[in-house]
Design brief:
The structure is a single chain. By secondary structure, the chain is of the alpha/beta class. The protein has two domains: 50-290, Type I PLP-dependent aspartate aminotransferase-like (Major domain) (Aspartate Aminotransferase, domain 2); 294-356 and 370-392, Aspartate Aminotransferase, domain 1 (Alpha-Beta Complex). It is built from 14 helices and 17 strands. The strands form four sheets. Strands 4-12-11-10-7-5-6 form a seven-stranded mixed sheet, with helices on both faces. A four-stranded mixed sheet has the order 1-2-3-15. Strand 13 and strand 14 (330-335) form a beta hairpin. Helix 2 runs antiparallel to helix 11 (277-290) and helix 3 (72-84) packs parallel to helix 11. It is globular and about 65 Å long.
């Protein structure tokens, strides 16, 4: 008999009732160190005082009005995001998938407005993940997300990640844009080479197509800069963000240049709940914190500690791990043993992390962690690895 909650997840047998910083507390009394952060969502940890205060204040005033009317929080947050990035304008939605859908539509509308409606195809990458709508599943490269949902949505040409010659070959008279993650999360915590991103920019410019970055997971301070593209010096035309920008409240956004988004006029796109006052209160509160002087310096400092600690585990347990991947506090361990087994054993010992593609262990802790939390996490990892080695 099917349960009342549709069984689309293989859930752990635990119910969390409260959280504080990087810690979660279960109804049965167990405490967990959270290095999953809701899959890179809870950027400020759990119940961050500033985020709690902002949401509590907004709850008592106004939740929803519709985008038929001006929303002050949208105007404030959009200005902050455009002033801090390459973008000139922002569309607010509810998720990363919705942000990527908006990006895809912008690319198609851009070409249509240029008198080239035949240009609708997007070059996408192997081992990518862009969401679970029909279009974003097709854009991504996860077989399990596509199984049973055919025929696959048309309009996407897949090439090997970081193969610039394959991208060149894929660009044709029907190409509207290129969609890439500067750091792949689900795909195995792979950080794109900066030279590769620069070459994508050059190709986009040469062919008058849009370069679109998916920073749903790697954005909002996760890599040690506000957005990952800043490390490369490459600016996209369009960028999808979500996860960390709401600090746990559902929201996403699509940022774009005026050139790219000019055809997105009234009626061309919309979202019933996107950018409502509650979401904007959360987003502005997150921006308050991540924009504080020294915040990103702290992220980089703790990221260095975490990555050095993980590199030490590669040396200490070479039969279990191959290499450290990712960027900043988006860290991965490429495993020689089954990553999901490790996730389960770490859970049993009180450490939450997430599996990723290519048999990788994913660590995406709250950005507010301290060295002591890294040390506590590594102590748990060591115990699990020593037991694994002893029983091998």
């Amino acid at each position: 008999m099917i349960p009342s909650v549709m069984p689309t997840y293989a859930r752990f047998d635990v119910v969390f009732e409260r959280g504080e910083g990087p810690w979660l507390y279960a109804t049965d009394g167990r405490r967990f160190l959270d290095f999953a952060a809701g899959i890179a969502v809870c950027a400020l940890g759990h119940c961050h005082p500033h985020l709690v205060e902002a949401l509590q204040a907004q709850v008592g005033k106004l939740w929803h009005t519709s985008n038929l009317y001006r929303i002050e929080g949208q105007e404030k947050l959009s200005k902050r995001l455009t002033e801090a990035t390459f973008a000139d304008t922002v569309f607010f939605g509810n998720s990363g998938a919705e942000a990527n859908e908006c990006a895809i539509k912008i690319a198609r509308r851009y070409q249509f407005d240029k008198g080239r409606p035949e240009r609708y195809r997007i070059v996408v990458m192997t081992t990518s993940f862009h969401g679970r709508t029909l279009a974003t599943v097709a854009a991504g490269d996860q077989a399990k997300g596509k199984y049973g949902f055919g025929p696959e949505t048309a309009g996407f040409d897949r090439v090997p990640f970081e193969d610039i010659e394959a991208v060149k070959a894929a660009i044709g008279p029907e190409t509207a844009g290129i969609l890439v993650e500067p750091v792949q999360g689900e795909g195995g915590m792979r950080a794109a080479d900066f030279a590769y991103l620069r070459q994508l920019r050059e190709l986009a410019d040469a062919n008058d197509i849009l370069l679109m970055f998916d920073e749903v997971q790697c954005g909002v301070g996760r890599t040690g800069k506000l957005f990952a593209y800043e490390w490369s010096g490459v600016t996209p035309d369009v960028m999808a963000i979500a996860k960390g920008i709401g600090g746990g409240f559902p929201m996403g956004a699509c940022l774009a240049t005026e050139r790219a988004a000019a055809p997105m006029v009234a009626g061309s796109h919309g979202s019933t709940f996107g950018g409502n006052p509650l979401a904007m209160a959360a987003g502005n509160a997150v921006m308050d914190v991540v924009s504080e002087p020294g915040f990103l310096d702290h992220v980089n400092a703790v990221a260095d500690i975490l990555r050095a600690a993980l590199a030490e585990r590669v040396k200490r347990f070479p039969e279990m791990f191959e290499e450290v991947r990712g960027l900043g506090l988006m860290a991965g361990l490429k495993c020689r043993v089954t990553n999901t087994d490790l996730v389960n054993r770490l859970f049993e010992h009180g450490l939450l992390c997430v599996s990723a593609g290519d048999n990788t262990l994913r660590f995406v802790p709250p950005l507010i962690i301290e060295q002591e939390h890294v040390e506590a996490a590594m102590a748990i990892l060591d115990r699990v690895c020593e037991t694994w080695r002893h029983n091998a």
